[in-house]
Amino acid sequence: MVEVLTLKNATYQAGTPRALVLCGDGINCERETVAAFAAAGFAASACHLNRLAAEPAALGEFQALALPGGFSFGDELGSGQILATKLSVLLGEQIRQFVADGKPVIGICNGFQTLAKMGLFNDPASGRRVALAHNSQGVFVDRWVAVEFPESDCIWTRGLEGCDFPVRHGEGRVMIEGEIPPGCVALRYSEDINGSSGRIAGLCDPTGLVFGLMPHPEAALHDVLHPQKRIGGARGLRVFENAYKYVKETH
Amino acid sequence: MSTNTAIIEVHDIPGRGTLCARAEKIQSLLSTWLEKVEVARGYWVTHPAVSESSAEFTGNIARLLHDPVLETLVSPIKKEPDFVLEIRWLHGVTDNCGNAAAESIAIARDWGQKPQVSSGEIVFGWLSANAKVNVEASKMKEDLRTLLAAGGLYNPLVQGVFFRDDLPAFGPAAHAPADDTSGNVKSFPVNLDIDEWVKISSDCHWALSRDELLLVIQHYRRPDIQVARHESGLPEGPTDVEMEIIAQSWSEHCKHKIFAAEIDYREQFDAAASGHTQLGASRINGLFKSEIVRATREIEARRGIKWLSSTFSDNAGMMRFDENLDVSIKVETHNSPSALDPYGGSLTGILGVNRDILGTGMGARPVANTDVLCFGLPDWTPAEVEDLLPVGLKHPSHVMEGVHRGIQDGGNKSGIPVVNGAFVFDDQYCGKPLVYCGTIGVSPARLPDGRDGARKYLACGDLVVMAGGRVGKDGIHGATFSSLELNEASPCSAVQIGDPLTQKRLLDFVIEARDAGLYSGITDNGAGGLSSSVGEMSQFTGGATIDAALVPLKYQGLDPWEIVVSESQERMTLAVPKEKWKALADLARVHGVEVTNIGTFDGSGAFRIRWNGKPVASLPIHFLHKELKPMRLEAVWQGPQPKPNWVERKPAHGSAKVPSGEAPDMVEALKTVLGRPNVRSKESLVRRFDHEVQAATVGKPFTGVAADGPADGGVIWLRPHGASDPWSGVAVASGINPKIAHVDTWLSAQFSLDEAVRNAVASGADPDMMCLVDNFCWPDPLPGSSNPDAAHKLGQLVRSARALAETSIAWGMPFVSGKDSMKNDFSGTTKAGQRVKISVPPTVLVTAVGKVPDVRRLAGSDFKSPNSLIYLVGADHGWPMEGTEYAGAFPVLRDCAVWPRMDLPLQIAIYRKVHRAMMGGLLLSCHDVSDGGLASAICESAIGGRIGCRVEGPRDHSWWFHEGPGRFVVSVDAGEVAAFERIMDGVPFRKIGQTHENSPEVILTGDGREIFNVPVMDIAKWWRC
Q: In angstroms, rounded to a whole number, what is the distance separating the alpha carbons of residues A119 and A117?
């Protein structure tokens, strides 16, 4: 069983990269996200964001950070809106430093929405702004979709080939004002599923470290979870393995 | 407007939001008057800081409340509107969006105290030239309200529509100032006579009967009670706090008095002619004990089952399917609340049953939801609604939309996947929808400190701790209200809106507190509020004392009785050892959960309530829970009856297009049946439920190459939840068959049980590791002047309970939990003044939960490969067409009159063999035959696999369309035929066809001649219409 650990009682072997998965306030995919990091080799723990906010310097002890999926603050005011406010106020500086230190960050579904609202994919210089609007069909959708990994700067998607991931969202239509550099488009749907601009399913920031995506690779770790049980159909683990490789090489 | 209140309007940037869809809907309702409509979100922010600087306010606060890429603070329409109206929550109604906005502002702004924020919609309207001249303003306002309500755009029970020009001070208008008086306790004279009590009980919505009131009188007149009351400073007669607690505790909802009643049962029908099972005359000492519990105890004893951790005693049944884990299951109904406010009612239904699981044993984590929903048919025309539907009832589609949205938010926002369910349509559900909400939970068999996760460990001296949401007037009298018939004047205080965020925080907190060993017992606050939760938990120690003045409130102005019985949501009651209190409170702070110590569990023998230290109630536990004598009721089953029909209406969907006296051709028949609401695909609705959060849903609602074939049940893989076995799982499936309840509830109950089990077996569950849950939703079976056939309805109840018990015993499948809802009637008046009573058909839902030994072996309902052989497994004799989907659309020319009986020992042998074949990897597909019969089942398997097939049978449509129980359609690889047939030896099965090599048609032949030949994609279109 995946244990939800606190900052203090997390135990890990020296030399093993550590991943921190935020939870609380309506986030609900922390368990499977911890499991995904653990399966990729990380010592992974979930931590309530209020705990981290009480001890923000502790973030420096981790080598990867995840904002998992869920319905933070019940999606009120727009998905990710309030969590973005809260993280910006309480942990904004630490998260910026985390990226400046060359450490990877992933935001999945609600985590992506939150990163977008925090402005991590915006570029004030060129006027680029990114938002996630309601799906063009107007409703939440849960289904597995085929995705492709275009050439990009994203460290999380290096060398990956197209596969199937589940999507489970109501506000996943990527909307971009201004130009997006080609190296920042890290994931595309093979066909239009929600009206996303350019079928974009995931973006990275210009450093390639911050990856935000609507599909759920952490829910595609095992073939038995694939809707057609296709052998080799569920390849979500590779996303997390990429982060492990990157951290091992750089830290 | 208060000077401390500011309004922030958030408008969509065209094409980027959903508000334009709202505007379009309003415009379409009012197209004759309106030239244009715009809808904005409104936030009314109240805080002393607001008045200081309005510029700062719009700049910094509004920024927190919108996304500038998608939304704007300035209306894109420059022209001044002709009217502006606000749709606001009424005072006391949960405003999740407003609360979240307040929290966001509090995080970002250092204002000391949290602002008050209420949210709503602002509608800007531009009138057409014609309306400006011809419509009087006051009439227009009235009509607008009516039309918005009729269109389902607002619910007058929880929301208000306010026109701005009527509201010089519109801020506080929607938030009426709370009555400041509180702490009032009224007592009743001890010497009131019974007739006076009956009147008071009715006025106060207590729903207490004459006999129950006599017991109250008797109790309070006891000399020892009088002495005790005098000593503790309580008045002689009962206080309102006491009467309210008694009313909640003895309500049908909490006490299940009908299921506990002594019933004299007899029958009046011709057994020989109909073939229906005769039970004979008998006296039943409580249906629950003598049927359902008896069956479980018999099975436990006979089979020596050791894996039942907890049955019937806790909030849910618990099974130890794995040495590490208990799996718990509970299914509830939330019918009355969903009738009044479909969204709020179903949302609180989901959240409520989630809390049941959270309050089971030492606390279990919900891992899956199962929702079965029954509505009136969706095809009512506006004219029919106007003329035929009683005033005050909502269009069945609006009810469905609201319920569906509540189920969606309840599951999705809590991170609990909906893995199983059904939609059932019948106009008998127009008065009250049935909203069955079920949840599966898991909990560790042993907690980290070694305690058994399935028990409770309360001790005298443990603190009574309320955790989660605050208490308001919402949901007062929910338990007693659901024990009464619904009518036009039903109290709106019974309506509540759930708060998934508060509950999710509570859930995360409870699970962490459980693992840290911070409490000794837990239960949920559901019906009856604190009066029930503390009242029930006090039975562990023999008493409890709480001070109602300590309970945190949403707003001031509640009297002690209201605090004690309020059903405000998202609350758990914990028993906390004194030395753990600080750690628990610290943990709660981390999770943003409010916890309050409101009293102590003790051994006083009574449930005592104080108000600021002063006693206001003392109820001996024995009196409260043990002294109520069972009711005596008479049940007479009158034999099969015609299907009740409260309305003459010609449904648009799937009705006959052939002259009477002729059978349709097979194409017409299948096209019609597959398109009927009970058969056709519900994918567009179901995909809006998150069915795979928690990343363990291996059996999803849809199967097949395009993931659009129907699944028979949901399967959760247990390994991610901590099972020791790498590949085991748990399947959950349901069975419901109200369609033949009027014929015989014995049959409909047995069919429901069989369908649930069959669906579970088709989903990989082992029939020897399977448990059942019963949910009875009945029309009122209690005698009364307006209820002439009560004895028959009670007779139907007896028969269905007996059928469940006998079938469960024969198959060795224990019931572990159950619930009943007994007042599913509505009475009202049509516009023409006609009195109408609408009662649900007697409806039994059976939910089956079974262990799947190996989730890698799930077959799915879809055909997998060409040239595989198709078998019909199960007894293939004729069943009457009464109640079938086919008979609902077409005349049945020849029908058998006698209902065959299921061979129960043979049937369980079939289920064991099918399970063996599936786990042995011999089944390519496995699908149950139910609504729409064999022909529909074959088409569904073909749709899932996108594979054509040829199936041979007789010409007679009844073979293709009857809905008799006990059957599967399976497909088997040609190379495995011998192995499959060897396993199936000894039970009825036969080869009926095979899948094609490469042609995409479904071909059916009747007595050797082709009667149907249609490409599978065309069939898919009929089904997904």
A: 5
Q: How far is B39 from chain A (nearest CA, A)?
A: 15
The answer to whether residues A175 and A197 touch, using CB atoms and an 8 Å cutoff, is yes
B104 touches chain A (CB under 8 A): yes
Residue from B99, B412, B569, B718 to probe the interface with A (highest A Cβ count within 10 Å): B412
Nearest C-alpha in A relative to B325: A1
Q: Which of B919, B905, B898 is nearest to B964 (CA)?
A: B898
Average pLDDT over residues B695-720: 96
State the DSSP H helix or E strand holding residue B245, giving kind and residue range, or none if neither.
Answer: helix B240-249
CA distance B163 to B372: 39
3-state secondary structure labels for all residues of B899-918: CCCCCHHHHHHHHHHHHHHH
Kindly state the tokens that stand for B153: 């755009």
Could you give phi then psi for residue A114, rounded to 5 degrees? Answer: -70, -45
Q: Which of B914, B918, B915 is nearest to B857 (CA)?
A: B918
Residue type, A116: A
What's phi and psi for B62, nearest 5 deg?
-60, -30
Q: Which residue has the higher pLDDT, B1009 or A7?
A: B1009
| Least confident span in B54-68, B718-732, B829-843 | B54-68
The tokens for B203 are 């006025």
Task: Classify the complex by whether its ipTM is higher than 0.90, answering yes or no.
Answer: yes
Share of chain A above pLDDT 90, in %: 91
Per-residue pLDDT band for A11 (boundaries 50, 70, 90) equals low
> CB of B375 within 8 A of CB of B311?
no
Strands (DSSP E) along B540-612, which ranges?
A: 544-547, 571-576, 595-601, 606-611
3-state DSSP call for residue B989?
Answer: strand
Which DSSP helix (H) or strand (E) runs through B344?
A: helix B342-358
Instruction: Specify the pTM.
Output: 0.94
CA of A65, closest CA in chain B: separation in Å? 19
pLDDT digits (tens, 9 = 90+) for B624-673: 988 888 999 999 999 999 988 898 887 655 555 555 667 789 999 999 99
**Is the pLDDT confidence value at A183 over 90?**
yes
